[in-house]
Amino acid sequence: MTTPALKKVVDKVVIFGVGLIGGSFARALKHAGAVGTVVGMGRSPASLARALELGIIDEIGGDMADALHDADLVLVAAPVAQTGAILASIAPHLQPGTIVTDAGSTKSDVVAAARAALGGKVAQFVPGHPIAGRETNGPDAAIIDLYQGKKVVLTPLAENAAADVERVAAAWRACGAILHTLSPEEHDKVFAAVSHLPHLLAFALVDDIANKPHAGLLFQYAASGFRDFTRIAGSSPEMWRDISLANQPALLHELDAYLAQLTTLRAHLAANDGAAIEGVYANAQHARQQWIEAIETAEIPAAPTR
Question: What is the pTM of this model?
Fold first, then answer.
């Protein structure tokens, strides 16, 4: 399923980071007829050239003032640790009619960075986080329907004008997304539990196996269960390093809770308490089934396309 043709939402969009997240945003807007021109900005000339070759962007931005001139919307889709520096580079050239948003997986740190970098222009920054992704990276990973039926969380600031928040929301809706709103603090607590901790665990398990002296033998017999559990360990180490550090307090809280759960399970196992172990497993199975049913009801399934 792809997004139906829509009226143009923005004339000019500037995207910092033209990989999976930023590139898919551009592809979806173009496919929906919702954007005029897409300008790509980033650290890697090779990635920008590839995005231009693939038609993800229309122009490679050079001079910041020229890139931002008459831009309706700017999306920062770079690792969260880079957000402050990018916003600081934008600030002197940010025109009154331009709205800036981001796609970072943490929000409290991003809001603090935005206030420091943008100063009096912070009202033009609307924080956001698309809840979609794959374990692949770069412009070649970008797909038209990554956001189809997926949630995008906005965490508006008190200074944001309602019309500016709506402009950001309209762009994401043109990509097929479903909009939700949380405070930055609520966002970071939620995603520490259901996103950041699972990534930490997946990375830790694969690293543990890889460092064993018989790792080759173990990986030889690892099958679908291991693959499914560790899929997200194929994600960008740089990006997830930044996310882990940016959301350190909430992630430490969730990690401590998980360690307590593991300690309890270990005690059940050491005591040969099958009933207790089965009780944990059964509760987890039931909760997961309910979650899957809720996701299937709320989200529109879409096969990846290019």
Answer: 0.87
